[in-house]
Amino acid sequence: MLLKVENLSLYYGPKRVLKDVSFSLEEGEILCIVGESGSGKSSILYSIARLLPKGARVEGSIRFKGMNLLNLSERELRRIRGKEISFVFQEPSLYLDPLFKIGSQIEEAYRAHMGKNGARQKAYEVLRKVGIQDVDRVYNSYPHQLSGGLKQRVCIAIASVCEPSLILADEPTTALDVTLQSSILSLFRRTKEEGRSVLLVTHDFGVVAEIADRVLVLKEGQVVEEGDVYSIFENPKHEYTKRLLLSL
Ligand SMILES: Nc1ncnc2c1ncn2[C@@H]1O[C@H](COP(=O)(O)OP(=O)(O)OP(=O)(O)O)[C@@H](O)[C@H]1O
């Protein structure tokens, strides 16, 4: 078991955004979290990465490789973020630094945890791995010179450069047009084949159908249904899940 979340609750002031959320994730598994807007999907990812705003209060436990992430200091967290657990966001432009070339951003992510040696070689390697053909050009480009799809590939390259065991992805294809979506999703599948686990948030059952092994259905901060992708599609138990499926 790579990740075990137990009775996770999240409060913003008096408002309870997550209610006793429990689930687990095996190595090499892709779990999709689905639910309507505002159901708390992103909040689960941010709780795991401990990237919550000031004033947020978390209860429960989040065990990752035996450590409770909720008990770690900021220093310990910095050692884990980017190396053991990495993040892919919805909007790659907000994540990439406009002032630095792609190559140096990948190398920076590598050096932060893995030391100076081999950064350049590794940057080229991950760019190739995410399916980029003209690696030299992309390596030497600034973010604004790349299309949205390429930028998201770069973000996945950055997220995997330190070979983390867990990738948290928040609506990673929502900002892209449909034709690009599956090519980006297939990168997560490749990540899985390398033994990494992916926790992917989406409101889109099309995405779920394409890559999930298991699905967690969230409604108003609570898990209403959990199961493997086939049973969720073929035999949804909860009315809410059926409604979400109908909107597909
Ligand atoms: N910083 C914050 N302060 C107060 N409430 C917040 C904050 N961030 C999120 N919330 C609330 O928490 C709830 C869950 O939000 P969250 O973004 O996790 O949902 P989501 O399912 O990911 O939605 P979406 O698909 O729209 O991103 C919402 O009611 C939201 O308004």
Automatic annotation (TrEMBL):
Name assigned to this protein: Peptide/nickel transport system ATP-binding protein
Domain ABC transporter: 3-245
InterPro entries: AAA+_ATPase (IPR003593), ABC_Ni/Peptide_Import (IPR050388), ABC_transporter-like_ATP-bd (IPR003439), P-loop_NTPase (IPR027417)
Source organism per UniProt: Thermocrinis minervae
Similarity comment text for this entry: Belongs to the ABC transporter superfamily.
Pfam family membership, one: ABC_tran
CDD domains the UniProt entry points to: ABC_NikE_OppD_transporters
Recorded topology in the membrane: Peripheral membrane protein
UniProt keywords, alphabetically: ATP-binding, Cell membrane, Membrane, Nucleotide-binding, Transport
Domain of life: Bacteria
Compartments where located: Cell inner membrane
UniProt cross-references to SMART domains, sorted A to Z: AAA
MF terms in GO: ATP binding; ATP hydrolysis activity
GO cellular component, one term: plasma membrane
